[in-house]
Design brief:
Elements: H1 12-19, E1 34-38, H2 44-57, E2 65-69, H3 72-92, E3 105-107, H4 108-123, E4 130-132, H5 134-147, H6 160-173, H7 177-184, H8 192-209, E5 211-213, H9 214-226, H10 228-235, E6 240-243, H11 251-260, E7 267-271, H12 286-289, H13 291-294, E8 299-303, E9 305-306, H14 311-322, E10 333-334, E11 343-349, H15 350-366, E12 374-378, H16 385-393, E13 398-401, H17 410-423, H18 428-435, H19 443-455, H20 460-465, H21 474-489, H22 498-512, H23 518-531, H24 537-546, E14 566-570, H25 571-574, E15 579-584, H26 601-615, E16 618-631, E17 642-644, H27 653-656, E18 660-664, H28 686-694
Parallel strand pairs: 1-7, 1-8, 2-3, 2-6, 4-5, 6-7, 9-10, 11-16, 11-18, 12-14, 12-15, 13-14, 15-16
Antiparallel strand pairs: 16-17
The chain binds a DNA duplex through helix 4, helix 9, helix 19 and helix 25.
Domain UvrD-like helicase C-terminal: 311-576
Keywords: ATP-binding, Helicase, Hydrolase, Isomerase, Nucleotide-binding
Catalytic activity: ATP + H2O = ADP + phosphate + H(+); Couples ATP hydrolysis with the unwinding of duplex DNA by translocating in the 3'-5' direction
Length: 695
DNA sequence: CTTGCCTTCGTTTTT
DNA sequence: CGAAGGCAAG
């Protein structure tokens, strides 16, 4: 007899999703397949964490619940909430609950890494495989390209990032190379055969060197599910599989789920097709749109009562989505009343945009809304530049999510390369990078040293006994090899073993980088401090790669937890979050939608959804800014660096009717440059640009 | 073979 | 404007 007090703060729909179970089984031990279509702000997280808690309270073993999320933040949040619900319920029953945890909550990639580590022997994988982040994977592709002689100048070959992107699409879409090239990379079609060879070689190298890229974590997991014996064993470990953000899963992930729950029994997926914004990463909206066809007897529950935003904001969001092509029809209804109309601000240029937004943020703060409750959102990281400059100038603290990451800094990568090489001496990418830190060691010496290492059964210790390369700084060389060997040994325990490596690297900084290097040394110390938070070296590497610190400065969040700061974030990074006030920058055609994705109708739909995600982050205040004249980042040679653009095509008259409009900034006085690109000439007339606003 | 300087090229979103 | 690739000097 289950006490139901914990279900009281749910609405009827939510409760039906939380308690959904097969009627003929006791205590909800299993259920038919369940799809929860949860509109923005309708309590998706609440519902999923309640379901997990409810299952545990009904007697399901928490270790037999698999909870797959999109980001680590989401996994932690849900685990935390589920624990809170369980604790409260157990306390109410007068039972002293031991804290409930969900040991199998995590991202697809993180859970995949964990399972592959465990099943490595059965899969012919080295259990100490390293995970390549994006940049490392691209570097390995580059090495392969050299090895195959594809880097010839006779014919332009796609660059490494493009090669990796193509590869990734092929893997995640489970598609033929030719098809991917034709639809998404038409300018590379001529290189079909060479790419095929390249990918074959890349795959072979990864296998040989015990390296897995992001896609491999899913691919190998999916391959494992194709092996009936292994699949059955894995499926038997879990009674319930709960999936968050199902609209952002791809075909590989769908295949994995199919293997874990072949009939759909125990499978519960939650998502919102209107918020599918990861198509560029091969996510497939058809997963969620076709769920009921995929799993016979699936139950669909729709959540439409919105607890986040005011109705005025939801009206704008609903109107925006009314034009969408394919979708689960839903109208969000606010539980919070009418509220203020959102505002559409027409700014003269980027500077006015920045100034206006900051003034509004400060004004809002005067009414008692903390900076942390306010967010400036944008499509591309660089759109925030002018706002950032202004924030620094006015000494307003902020934190930026998306864009340049802490781990992208060259010196941080250096230290990681040392640790990665130590963890897996066959990690060619880490080895190359580490070796080339030594003055006088370039690609060729690094290559030869690596070959010697391979020929000598990957023994770092014996590599140290061999003479240094001719031109190498002998002292630094010895320092490097000793340092890495000690790291491999793990002497002194984690993270103390990291200290000598950090010190050695800091000693190299003046040679390697321009002065001043104090900031770089500080970053290295920060990384050492971060390392201390992880149990051991391997967990540090794995988790850091799968979940890099989200924001610049995020790595010292413990210290600044109570500080107030304004949030700057890409729309993508803001998914799943909410703020009292949202200011959306640069709502211009070419950005919303992006000029790069405006080609196919499907891409265009995704751009609309991106705007929808941005709108629906706001609780009380939404301001959308369109600068008329802005800095153009491409075609710099073609003359003037400012162009006049058009307001986003998604801001249709019907959508604009949901907003109140206002102009800010000085009237246009700058003469129009005759050198502006011809394609933009039609928009050069400010009067015409202004008229277009009200068409 | 390494390194530093010069040219050219291409630009989104991220687990 | 920044990164990456090519070329020449040490």
């Amino acid at each position: 007899m289950t006490d139901t007090a914990h279900l009281e703060d749910l609405n009827e729909r939510q409760r039906s999703a939380v308690t959904f179970a097969r009627p003929d089984t006791a205590a909800g031990l299993t259920s038919d397949p369940l799809l929860v279509i949860a509109g923005a702000g309708t309590g998706k997280t609440q519902t999923l964490s309640h379901r997990a808690a409810h299952l545990v309270l009904s007697g399901v073993d928490a270790r037999r619940i698999l909870l797959l999320t999109f980001s680590r933040r989401a996994a932690e949040e849900m685990t935390r909430r589920a624990r809170g619900i369980c604790d409260a319920a157990l306390a109410a029953r007068g039972r002293r609950g031991q804290a409930v945890s969900l040991p199998w909550a995590g991202t697809f990639h993180a859970i995949g890494a964990r399972l592959l580590r465990e099943y490595a022997p059965a899969l012919g994988l080295s259990p100490n495989f390293s995970i390549l982040d994006r940049a490392d994977a691209a570097d390995l592709i580059d090495v392969c390209r050299q090895q195959l002689g594809l880097a010839l100048r006779t014919r332009r070959f796609p660059r490494k990032d493009t090669c990796l992107a193509i590869y990734s699409q092929v893997v995640n879409r489970r598609a033929k190379l030719a098809a991917v090239l034709e639809t998404r990379f038409p300018w590379c079609v001529a290189h079909h055969d060479a790419l095929k060879r390249l990918f074959a070689h890349y795959t072979e190298r990864k296998q040989h060197l015990a390296l897995l890229d992001y896609d491999d974590l899913l691919l190998h997991w999916a391959l494992m599910m194709r092996e009936p014996g292994l699949a059955a064993g894995l499926a038997a470990r879990f009674d319930h599989v709960l999936v968050d953000e199902y609209q952002d899963t791809n075909l590989l992930q769908a295949e994995i789920l199919r293997g874990l729950a072949p009939t759909g029994a125990g499978l519960c997926v939650v998502g919102d097709d209107a918020q599918a914004i990861y198509g560029f990463r091969a996510a497939d909206v058809d997963n969620i749109l076709g769920f009921a066809d995929q799993y016979a007897g699936a139950r669909v529950v729709r959540l439409e009562r919105n607890y986040r935003s005011t109705q005025a904001i939801l009206d704008a969001a609903n109107t925006l989505m009314a034009d969408a092509a394919r979708r689960y029809d839903k109208q969000l209804a606010s539980a919070r009343g009418a509220g203020l109309r959102p505002r559409h601000i027409i700014a003269h240029d980027g500077a006015d945009e920045a100034r206006h937004v900051i003034e509004q943020v400060l004004a809002r703060r005067e009414t008692g809304v903390a900076l942390k409750q306010q967010a400036v959102l944008f499509r591309n990281a660089h759109h925030a530049n002018e706002v950032e400059i202004e924030l620094v100038r006015r000494d307003i603290p902020y934190r930026k999510y998306g864009g340049l990451k802490f781990l992208d800094a060259a010196h941080v990568k250096d230290l990681l390369a040392l640790v990665r090489w130590a963890a897996n001496p066959a990690n060619q990418i880490a080895a190359y990078r580490a070796l080339q830190i030594v003055p006088g060691v370039g690609p060729a010496s690094a290559q030869r040293a690596f070959e010697r290492l391979e020929a000598d059964d990957w023994s770092l210790v014996r590599l140290g006994r061999q003479p240094a390369p001719r031109q190498a700084d002998a002292e630094a060389w010895c320092g490097l090899v000793d340092t890495v060997a000690a790291l491999a040994e793990g002497a002194g325990g984690w993270p103390a073993t990291l200290e000598p490596a950090a010190e050695w690297l800091k000693a190299q900084l003046p040679d390697r980088y321009e002065a001043p290097t104090t900031a770089r040394a500080g970053d290295i110390d920060d990384l050492v401090r971060i390392a201390a938070r992880y149990r051991d070296r391997d967990r540090f590497l794995t988790e850091l790669t799968l979940d890099p610190p989200a924001a610049t400065g995020d790595h010292n969040d413990d210290a600044h937890l109570d500080e107030d700061y304004l949030v700057l974030s890409t729309v993508h990074s803001a998914k799943g979050r909410e703020f009292d006030s949202v200011y959306l920058l640069h709502v211009a055609d070419g950005t919303f939608p992006s000029e790069y994705t405006a080609r196919s109708p499907a891409d265009l739909e995704e751009e609309r959804r991106l705007l929808y995600v941005a709108f629906t982050r706001a609780r009380n205040v939404l301001e959308v800014v369109s600068p008329l004249r802005y800095h153009v980042t491409e075609q710099r040679r073609l003359g003037d660096r400012h162009v006049y653009g058009a307001i986003s095509r998604f801001m249709t008259p019907a959508v604009r009717a949901c907003f109140s409009a206002r102009d800010v900034g000085t009237p246009v006085d700058a003469p129009v440059s005759a050198a502006a690109p011809a394609s933009l000439r039609a928009a050069l007339d400010v009067g015409a640009a202004a008229r277009r606003l009200w068409d």
